[in-house]
């Protein structure tokens, strides 16, 4: 099957007792029109998505991605996805995709067409960018004020902070700001000085002998890669912690990484122009583990 690969999906309700979903999947020519102009995903970014990696034919962390899709749907008051249908859609796609190299498989659930009867869903797979050199060299990062205090998700749930919505314009603007300032990536911090996440990644630091990531309150996404990395570290006898991370602790960290599903683990080499210690050997070990996952 050639890439990109596109599958339109007729979403079935979460409580459906179906076990065969084949008639709800429609393979599309990726170059052909597939969405209607009234789509609220394109008109308003009103939908949610996930991107998982497929490495040598193995889709990574399928269940954590589906769980996060369900969580995002609940936050956004979208019809709750049927996990069995999404599992089947991913398996359907993977069976038709090349079984070599790294692919990015994105799946989307949109509110659908204005006044339309049903949500719209699709899955789209492409070859992943070649991230080998950035995994070796790391990234220069700036911190950017996200403009909200810690605890924002509790006082303003309508901001949908913990949902992976399609509204990524701010996240992309933050990456452009990083480039403008001569850096590669961004770490968002709360207005009162706590580390949040990158625009497309989670933050993990090594501090005081522990691996630490900001507690997944409702204000950030709970990264599937970070969770996987913490399982690996805990199994290796390392201490892992979820807690608030003041930005000064990030600046003083022994090492820091941005981690995400497709780029995997990249070391932060510079923060706001100041060098950050790099543990190249650890970074290589993280990526070897992440690439070696078969589930
Ligand atoms: N935080 C944000 C805002 C993201 O967009 C992403 C991934 O795209 C992540 C964190 C990392 O999540 P994952 O490791 O599941 O890819």
TrEMBL record:
> MF terms per GO, please?
4-amino-4-deoxychorismate lyase activity
What is this protein identified as? Aminodeoxychorismate lyase
**Family per similarity comment:** Belongs to the class-IV pyridoxal-phosphate-dependent aminotransferase family.
A Gene Ontology BP annotation from the UniProt entry: carboxylic acid biosynthetic process
Pfam families on file: Aminotran_4
* Keywords in alphabetical order: Lyase
Q: Cite the EC number.
A: 4.1.3.38
Q: Which domain of life is it from?
A: Bacteria
NCBIfam families registered for this protein in UniProt: PRK07849.1-1 (NF005886)
Q: Can you name a GO cellular component term?
A: cytosol
SUPFAM superfamilies the UniProt entry points to: D-aminoacid aminotransferase-like PLP-dependent enzymes
């Amino acid at each position: 099957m050639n890439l990109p690969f596109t599958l339109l999906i007729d979403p079935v309700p979460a409580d459906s007792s179906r076990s065969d979903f084949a008639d709800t999947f429609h393979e599309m020519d990726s170059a052909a029109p597939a969405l209607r102009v009234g789509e609220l995903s394109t008109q308003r970014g009103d939908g949610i998505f996930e991107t998982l990696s497929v490495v040598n034919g193995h889709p990574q962390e399928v269940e954590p991605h589906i769980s996060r899709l369900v969580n995002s749907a609940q936050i956004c008051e979208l019809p709750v996805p049927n996990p069995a249908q999404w599992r089947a859609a991913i398996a359907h796609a993977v069976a038709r995709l090349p079984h070599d190299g790294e692919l990015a498989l994105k799946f989307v659930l949109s509110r659908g067409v204005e006044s339309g009867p049903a949500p719209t869903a699709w899955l789209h797979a492409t070859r992943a960018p070649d991230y080998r050199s950035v995994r070796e060299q790391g990234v220069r990062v700036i911190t950017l004020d996200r403009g909200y205090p810690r605890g924002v998700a509790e006082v303003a749930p309508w901001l949908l902070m913990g949902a992976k919505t399609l509204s990524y314009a701010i996240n992309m603007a933050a990456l452009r700001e990083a480039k403008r300032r001569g850096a590669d990536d961004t770490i968002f911090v709360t207005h009162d000085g706590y580390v949040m996440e990158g625009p497309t990644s989670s933050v993990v630091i090594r501090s005081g002998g522990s691996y630490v990531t900001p507690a997944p309150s409702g204000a950030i996404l709970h990264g599937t890669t970070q969770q996987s990395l913490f399982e690996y570290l805990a199994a290796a006898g390392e201490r892992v912690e979820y807690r608030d991370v003041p930005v000064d602790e990030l600046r003083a960290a022994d090492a820091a990484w941005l981690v995400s599903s497709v780029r995997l683990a990249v070391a932060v080499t510079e923060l706001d122009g100041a060098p950050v210690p790099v543990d190249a050997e650890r970074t290589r070990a993280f990526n070897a583990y992440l690439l070696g996952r078969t589930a």
